[in-house]
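Check this.
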Amino acid sequence: MGTRMRAAAVFGGAVALALPLVVAGGGPAGAASCNLGTGPYQRQVEQFLGRPADGRQSAADCRAIRSFQSSHGITPTQGYAGPLTWQAMNTMLAQRAAGRTPNKAGHCPVNRGRIACVDLTRQLSWIQDGATLKYGPVPVRTGKDGTETRTGLKKIYHRSVDHWSTVYHVSMPYAQFFDGGIAFHSTAKSMWNPPGSGGCVNMRSADAKAYWNLLGKGEDVYVYGRKPGT
């Protein structure tokens, strides 16, 4: 190897050691690199994704984590097992654990007839009639830090099937308002997309449509708990 080539090789090695463990890789648009650093929630994230739970980042782990992040709009989409990624996964686990008994702890009133319940802690909603579950539970996306969905007993006071927000300039299909400008409505975003809404209870389209068909003006809504990260 010539002097110039040896110098280039040494310089290249020094740069590689100085840079973070990030490598180029294929993936979704806007995710041009993969972080090979071991994150603080590495083992938990690996377990959630069905990966070998050794607590050490690998290229395969990174690809799996990036795929999850891309699906739910978690940025930066670099495959790092950080707190935001684990928060989304942990919320999913809590939702799965609710099963068909979301009101097992009895937080949502059972003495008011038909009522839509919103649990901010688990990011879950369902409709019950007395103690009978009528629909759900389904994942929801509620207000972010600073624009939290307000808690308490409310009533649906206005409905607009094809609503347009003049505040956020976005479509709000199947909007059912129950607290000022706060409403149930559908969105195209993932229910686990951080940081959250401007206060509304975002739902998947099919769920928002079901709520539209099952609820009406004057129906009760009960919001309780606290969203993770708020």
User: Anything to note?
Assistant: The chain has five helices and eleven strands.
